[in-house]
Amino acid sequence: MTAPPRHPVKSRAVSALLTHAIDYAGLYPPASLSMADAVREYQKQRFGPGAWALGRFVVGAAQLEAFVAAREQADAVHWPLSVLSTGHVADDVRLISAADAHSGKLRVEAIEAKVESATRVADLAPLTQLVPELYVEGPPIADSTALLELLRAVRSLGAHAKIRTGGVTADAIPSARVTAEFLRACVAVGVPFKATAGLHHLVRGEYPLTYEPVSMRATMFGFLNVFMAAALAQADAPLDVLVEVLEEREPGAFETRDDRLCWRDRCLTSAALQRMRDGALHSLGSCSFQEPIAELTAAGFGAAE
After folding, report:
1. How many CA atoms lie within 13 A of 267 on its CB side?
2. What pTM was computed for the model?
3. What is the pLDDT of residues 88-116, one digit of tens each?
């Protein structure tokens, strides 16, 4: 089967910011698709107009056998995977190795794992031998000292960090200031990271927490807010500025100018945005791919016709 088509984007800045940036997590809430449906959706999006922004397929280590079976119905290309840890390193190694030996088709590029504290980060060392990238999610951020301790442990392991920016309940969404502090600390320590959960809308606003007909609503981050805040953190913007961009609710506050992406009067070149993607915010995880692409396109940032 031929490779996915290339779709031009409206600006080099948007391309630098979002190319292969959205990891598809359709198996997880609130989408909670079956394996067969999630595989079909990822296959569909690989050939859709937003394919340029599509990142890895997110799957649990315990689901790899089911994934391999479902993949038999899709194309033969080795999809890039980000595998969620079971919480037990030995089990992760066994499951990933067994699935790869059985299929010969796995392309596990990353593993995402949780730890209870900075002192447990070193326990994840065997996972770094399996994949190019390990993303470590710590407990909810208590204070800057604990955050820096965690990030330094992650850096010592040669791993990356992970922040959870949402969930299916309002209390799962961190404040803009806590999120800004995480972004700034990652840049200061030199630890690349990914963000996940609640990031399928373009800009901050009040949205349903689930896809249920009657769902509670909460104020959620937009993925453009988070990416731009990360880029400004790398450009050494003050913490209060990062908070402001994370709290921005007006889509029109973001615009492209030549090869720059601007938030109000602060602009970053496509080269600066690419450096941010390489050294800071690698990707976001979203249970929906259609929603972020549709909102991006509707706002004038998406794929050109």
Report:
1. 11
2. 0.93
3. 999 999 999 988 876 666 789 999 999 99
* CB-side neighbour CA atoms (13 Å) of 57: 30
Domain residues of the chain, as ranges?
Answer: 12-201+283-295
Q: How far is CA 42 from CA 25, 50, 198, in A?
A: 9, 11, 19
Query: pLDDT for 217-231, tens place per residue?
Result: 999 999 999 999 999
- Looking at residue 2, its pLDDT comes to 43
Residue 134: helix, strand or coil by DSSP?
strand
Domain at 12-201+283-295: CATH architecture: Alpha-Beta Barrel (3.20)
Here the tokens at position 98 are 């067994």
In the numeric block, which tokens belong to residue 191? Answer: 């630890």
| Alpha helices, DSSP H, located in the chain | 12-18, 35-46, 64-71, 89-103, 125-128, 144-157, 176-189, 223-234, 239-246, 270-279, 290-298
